[in-house]
Amino acid sequence: MRKLLWVLPGMLATASVAAEEPIVTDEVTITATREAEPLKESPHSVGVVDQKEIDAVKPGHPSEIMGRIPGVYIDVTGGEGHMTAIRQPITTSPVYLYLEDGVPTRSTGFFNHNALYEVNLPQAGRIEVLKGPGSALYGSDAIGGVVNIETRASPLQPEASIDAELGIFGWRRLLLDAGTTVGDDGYRGDVNLTHTDGWRKSTGYDRQSFTGRWDLTLKSGASLKTVLAYSNIDQQTAGTSTISYDDYINNPTENYTPISYRKVGALRLSTAYEKETSDSLLSITPYARVNSMELLANWSLGYDPTVYQTNNNSLGVLAKYRRDFVPLRTRLVTGVDVDYSPGGRSEQSITPTKVGGIYSSYTLGSSVYDYAVAFEGVSPYAHLEFSPTDKWRVTTGVRYDMLRYVYDNHIDSSVVTVGSLNYYQVADTTMDFSQLSPKLGATYEFSKELSGFMAYREAFRAPSEGQIFRAGKAATTTNLKPVKVQSVETGLRGKREDWRYDLSLYYM
User: In this structure, how many other beta carbons lie within 10 angstroms of the beta carbon of residue 441?
Assistant: First the structure.
C-alpha cells in the first residue's frame, strides 16, 4: 500500500509501504484481568483506542488521543507535558497507574504526572483505560484509573513506513517503523523524533524515542515477548505559565521564566514468558527500568527556587498462573508482583536574577536535599471468576501489598536554612506500609446486544518518596498514611449495528 497525503496548514507529508494488519476490536479488554477477555464479561468501565484510530490521529500530544475516551481528560502544560483527570479533578497527585504492555512504567513512590510522555504514544498499538480503582490487581496508585499502552506486535510480512511532518512554530516530526517475521522470530522497531520551538518564547521541546519488540515462539509452544523502550525528552517549561493581562492581550507569546527546563530519560526492558495449555497459563515477566529527571520548575521561582535531579532504577518480576475449570466456567488467577527500585534526589537552591520582570539567569546555592531511597514491594494477589448461570459472570479478587522505603539522608543537619526558607530533613529511617485491596463484581447479559455490570472495589496509594522525604517546611512527614478509597459502580453497555454505547454510574 502506497500513499501520499498533504494536509494544510500543518503541511503533513506521509509516505508508507506497509502490509495490512488486523485491528483488534474494542469488544475485548486486556487491562482488567491482565489478559484478553470479552468486554461484556468485565465488571469495569473500560475505554479503548485501537491502532487504526491511533494511526489516523498520530497524536502530537496525549490529549489529542486520550480525550477520545469518554470520562478521560488530559490537559496541556507544555511540550507533551500534561495532567490527567479520570474520576478525579485535574491533579499532579499519584492517583493513576500507567502501564506499558501491563508493566508499570514507574515504581510506586516515584510517580510522574507527565507519565505519558515517557511512552511512544503515536506509535502505540492500542490504548486501554480502566476507569476507577484497580488496586486489587495492580496495587498502589490505581485509584482514578489504570492507563495501559500496548506496543505493536511484530508483523507477519515485511513492512516499513516513514511519516514526515513540518508545521508552524518550528514543528518537525519524523516517525519511522519497520518489522518482519523470519521463522519463529518476529521483529519490530519504531522511532519517534520530534521538535517544536513552541508558540511562546523559550518553550521549545525535543523528543527522541525508540520502541523495539522481539516476538519469539519456542519449540515447546511457549512464547517470549521482549520490549525495549527508550525516551529522551528535553523541554523548556512555562508553556502555561501566567502573564499579565496587558501581555495576554498585546503580547501573548511572552514568557517570564525562560530559564526553566525539564530533562527526562526513561529506559524500560521486559521479557514476557507465556506458556498456555487448554486449561492453564503460566506467565512470568521480569523487567528493568531506568528513570531520571532534571528540573528547574517555573512555578516555584518566586517562592521556592531550586533545581533538582531525581533518579530511580528498578528490577522486578510479574508472575501469574491461571487455571480454568469446567464447572461454572471457573477461572482462578494467582500471582505475585515483586519490585526493587533504588533511587534518590539531589536538590540545590538557586538565586534567580530578574531583568524587566523576566527571570533571565540564576546562580547555584547550597544543597537543600541529598538522599538515597529504595522502594521494595512484594504483592501477592488472587482473582476468581465463575458463571452461576449462562447469563451471570461473577468476579472477585484480593491483593495484599507489602511496601517499604529504605531511606538514607546524606545531609547531617536537621534543617537547611536558605534566606527565610527552611528545608527540614528526615533522619535515616525505614518505613513500611501494607494494604489489603478486595474487589467484587458481576455482569449480566440481557441479550447479545445489551449487558450490565456492577462492582465494589477498594484502592489505595502509599505516600510518594517526595511527600515523605522532601519535607519542605513541614517538621514531621514520617507520620503520613496511605490514601484509601472505596468505590461502588453500576453500568450498562450495548451495541446497535455499527455503534456502541456505555453508561456508568459510580460513587467513590
Answer: 22
